[in-house]
Every structure is written in structure tokens, then in C-alpha cells.
Amino acid sequence: MVNGKITTKGLVIERNRTVTGEVNGSKFCLVFSHLGPDTNINLKCGVVESRKTNGTNGVGYVLPFPGSITSISLEYYVSVAGTVDDFNMHLYINNTNIITTSLGITVGRLPEYYTQARDIDTFNAGDFISVETVSSDTTHGDLKCFVSGVFDNHD
Fold it and tell me: How many domains, the chain?
């Protein structure tokens, strides 16, 4: 602080300590998981058991503010590699498939991630987000999925 003024990376806070506008938005991270082996896994959020409904897992999070998805990080274990390379992760907003990413089918523990710029896949307050993995013959389990993004400026 010099003469009652704080300046850091373009942010200036004067003596009255008032900051207006959006600094970076509010970042968030949602956690989905599943322990058992299967070919089609409906990921859980928190301690809620997921149930497959209309092509999606029917369980997820209700988003409290508008914003956008910026990344997905997934770690999983493949116990039986399939012969058909059709292992995919789907991210749904309001039961609409927004993001699909292909996953590896090599036996072992595999990490995957997907990133994108802000404002590509957006959502509104009250929208529902869920995740599911689907394969015809790759057995996988011990999934941990982190979906992160930014909530728009809000009061």
C-alpha cells in the first residue's frame, strides 16, 4: 500500500476500499464419482445415488447463477479394454448433451482433461448439470470427475 492505494495486476483499490464490477467471476468446481466397475456409468454427485433417465443420469447439480463451463478433469480405471473404441464421457445441461469427449480404453488408471474458453458452453441460473460415461464393451470404474467453470458477475 502506497499513499492509501493498493495496485496489483491492474486492480486498483483506493482509500475508500470500494471495488466495482467483476474481477474474474466466481469460479466453481463440481465433483462427480463412481466406484464400481461397469460399462455404462451414471456418475454420482455427493452421496446421491444416480439413476439413468432419458439418456442421462438424472442426478447432478442445480446451478445457482448463470455462467459457463471451462474444464472437465476425469480420472478412471479401465479393467477390461473393449474391442470397440466407443468409450465417451457426456456432460449434460438440462438433459441436453453439451460436451462429449472420447476416453482411452487401455487397461490401467487413465487421466483425461478437456478445457475451453469462457462463454462457449453457457448455462442459466436453475439449469441442471450432470455427467455420464458410456461404452459398449470397455469395463471401467473408480471414476473421479471434476467439472469447473465461472459464474457470471452476480449480486
Answer: 1
